[in-house]
Known about the structure:
Structural class: mainly alpha
Amino acid sequence: MQLQAIFKIIGLLLMLFSTTMLTPVIVDLIYQEADSLPFLMGFAVTFFSGLLLWLPVRRHRKELRLRDGFLVVVLFWTVLGLAGAIPLMFTLQPHMSFTDAAFESISGLTTTGATVLTGLDDMPHAILFYRQQLQWLGGMGIIVLAVALLPMLGIGGMSLYRAETPGPMKDSKLTPRLTGTAKALWYIYLSLTIACALAYWLGGMEVFDAISHSFATVSIGGFSPHDASMGYFDSPLLEMIAVVFMLLAGVNFALHFVAWRNFDLRIYLHDSEFRTYAVILTILSVITVIYLYTSDTFILPENALHNGIFQAVSIGTTTGFTTAEYHIWPGFLPVLLLFASFIGGCAGSTGGGMKVVRFLLLLNQGRREIFRLIHPNAVIPIRMGEKIISPGVIESVWGFFAAYVAVFVVMMLIIMMTGLDQISAFSAVAASLNNLGPGLGQVGSNYADITDTAKWVLSFGMIMGRLEIFTLLVILTPAFWQR
């Protein structure tokens, strides 16, 4: 274990992250609300903590191994979540305990969007912007950003990239150099954010709201500066703009890169994961719209149409924006939407869930087993498009699925032990592991009333979901620590 290299990179990344706490200070100066001190204190504590870690090992040059990369990523997301909580702890409005501040920070960085805050419309702009910024930074991953901006680290960047980037296929690079890959991803991410902010602004949002919601939309985070989320604006136009960018953010960013580089939109249609993603969300939207109208939840068909499409895409992509209290919609609909979040976005996107590619591979594997019962001697390869998938990939997908189910069951039982009913506990764990945010029952609106124990368990679940379970589980195994 290269402990010196680990301390060096954590120190550097903490110092890098500390500079993001100065942006809310600029926001506070613009709105003159005298709420800069918590962010200046947060900057100082985070920066000097990173400096103390970095200074003693600054001359260390050995590269990280893959095992070290896993530890760095897990430690950094844990430390980052706690560091991000510092400004929230120091604020007077709202006054937050350490547990609540850590929950809010981790929820933002993991792009979960679960919140313990209410009365957002009356809070200082600096606090509101900071929450949105946390999501935006977490969306593509601060690790990938660091690889893009700090190529001089020279300590095994690929190890970090593989350990942090979501999705089951992490070995492919878009460009020959890893720094080029990271920069390409961030250019696309930044371009989508700017385009989304402009679209919101042209659609009628004020500049602050447009920027804030673009951060949450492209990161698939779901935080909003308003208690009513996107429902605050009561605008079908803004909802449809959000739908477009949520759909784009849920697509594999490598696919965006290839399509945009070649100026060929047909590349999307040739991708089997994208086609499955589009079909799932289309079917989900149709069912939601029809049921909302036939159940008289919305009397006017146009209201059922835009609310149904928006909520289906928002929950299906694990964004978590709301225009209405979907958790009290009638019948099976809230549960159906929650189950859709288990599939989530495409691999290599900012979306959560198990990812469409895994769902597709599990579906194809199930099909193959049924066909084998009919034709026992047949050799039936599993394909994605024209590509035959190796048995190793299928095994890893089944391993992930088994680990996901096991973790889900254990977390749900613990949450139920804290006092939540079955539906609330089930949805809270689902919303955390899938990085969704809003749940059902007692956690339909926010998580303020659950116990501190439940908040820490769910925070752990958010990190597990963001790092796709194995990255965190691997460091808990005895074999990881053996030489």
